[in-house]
Amino acid sequence: MENKTITAVRGFLAGAMHCGIKESGKPDLALLVSKVPAAAAGVFTTNKVQGAPVIIGREHIAGGHLQGCVINSGCANVCTGQRGLRDAREMCVLAARHLKNAGLPLLPAQMLPSSTGVIGRFLPMDKLRRGLPTLVEKLADTAQAGEAFAQGILTTDTCVKTAYTTLRAGGSTVTIAGNCKGSGMIAPNMATMLAYVATDAAIAPAALRRIVKAVADQTFNCVTVDQHTSTSDTFVCLANGMSGGRRLTGSGLNTFAAGLMEVCLSLAKQIARDGEGATKLVRVFVCGGRTSADAKRAALAIANSPLVKTAIHGGDPNWGRFVSAAGYSGANMDVGKSVCKVGKITVFRAGRPTEVALSKVEAAMRQTEIDITLDLGTSGTGTAEVFTCDLSREYITINADYHT
C-alpha cells in the first residue's frame, strides 16, 4: 500500500510512543525529524495566555530554519511559569541529544516543542526523559511510523487527521503531507490545533513564511467549533529541499502554495468534522460582502451561533437563525436584496421567505454535510468560507468529563 503519511515526504522520519502521560495508555510522545535542516515557517495562537512551548517555539522558528518537532499530548504546559519554560527548553535539549547519539546531529534550537492537553499542570519530565531515547530508536520513514506520529499528537480527537498531495514544481515531483489534531477549543485565529506539514520542496524561508500565513488565514483560521481560542495552537511547515528540484520562484511558488492550500484545507475540514460531539460538517459561504472582512464577520456569526448549531443538530429548517445571525454580526447587509440557501434550496429572497416546500428544507438539514449560503446583498465582491459543526448533547458530556 502506498505511503501517504507524513513520512512519505523525502528525508523525514517520524514516530510516537506511550511514555506515561496519558492514563489511557495511548501514544503521548511524538517526534518528526528531517534528515537535513529545513526552511520553516509557523503560525501560533493569538491567545494572550500562551503555553510555554509556544513561547519557545516562536523563539526557535524566528530564524526561518528548524530540523524537527517534539510533541507531547495529555499535558499542555500552560500557566506553568518559569518552570514550564525550562521544561519546554529541556524537551528540545533531550530530543537533540538523543538524535545526535543516533547519528542525526542538530541543535536544541532546531527543534520546535509542542504540548497539548490539560492546562495548569507541570510536564512529567521524568517520563519524557525516559521516553525520548526509546522514541528516537523507533523513528522511521515507514507508513506505520507516520501513522504512529498522527496518533501521538491527539487528545479528545476521535480519529487521526492526515492529508497528502504531490505536484510538479522546480523541475521535480514535490510531496506535501501533514497531520493535525483538534476537536474542541476550536475557534478562528488558531485554536486547540496542532498542525505539522512536511514537504521536500526547496523554498526560501521568507517565501515559505508568506505562503504559510496566507494559507492559515484561508484554512485553519476559518474553522470554528466552540469559539474558544486555545493557548497552544501551532501550525508549522518544514521544507527540507530533498525533492532534488530547483529552489521555487515565480509560478513554482504559486503551484506549491496551491498544494499547501489543498493539504491544509483538507486538515481544516477534518477538524470541523471531528468537532467534539459533532455529527455534521457545516460549510458557511457568504458572498456579496462589501469587503471580504465583512463577509467573514457574517460567516463567523452564523457558524458560531449556538442557536444555528443546535438547529443543525436537530435537523430544524430554521433558516431565520442564519439570516438573523448575519444581521447582528456588524457586517453591511441589504436585507431586501439578500438571498439565503440551504444546500441548493433558496429559502429567503428579497426580504421574505420563498414558497419552497418545508419538507425539502428538512431533508437538506438532515444531511451529514450541510452548505449554508448567504448573499449579503450589497453588490460587493467580498466572500468568505467558514467550516463548523453541529452542537450536540455529547459536546456537553465530553467537556463536563474532560478536564482542560
Give me the CATH superfamily of the largest domain. L-amino peptidase D-ALA esterase/amidase
Could you name the ranges where pLDDT drops below 50 across 5 or more consecutive residues? none
CATH architecture of the largest domain: 4-Layer Sandwich
Shape: globular
Mean pLDDT: 92
* CATH level-3 fold name of the largest domain: L-amino peptidase D-ALA esterase/amidase
Helix run count? 11
Report the portion of residues in β strands. 25-35%
Q: What's the total number of strands? A: 14
When the domains are counted, the total is 2
Spell the H/E element sequence: EEHEHEHHEEEHEHEHHHEEEHEEH
The major pleated sheet works out as: 8 strands, mixed
Distance N terminus to C terminus? 38 Å
Percent helix among the residues?
25-40%
Give an overview of the whole structure.
The protein is of the alpha+beta class. The protein has 2 domains: 6-273, L-amino peptidase D-ALA esterase/amidase (4-Layer Sandwich); 281-401, Ubiquitin-like (UB roll) (Roll). Helices cover 35% and strands 26% of the residues. It has 11 helices and 14 strands. It has helices spanning 52-61, 81-101, 125-138, 143-152, 205-218, 250-273, 292-304, 306-314, 320-328, 358-365, 393-401; strands at residues 12-17, 29-44, 65-75, 111-118, 161-169, 172-181, 194-199, 234-239, 281-289, 339-342, 345-349, 352-353, 369-375, 382-389. Helix 1 packs across helix 2. The model has no long low-confidence stretch (mean pLDDT 92).
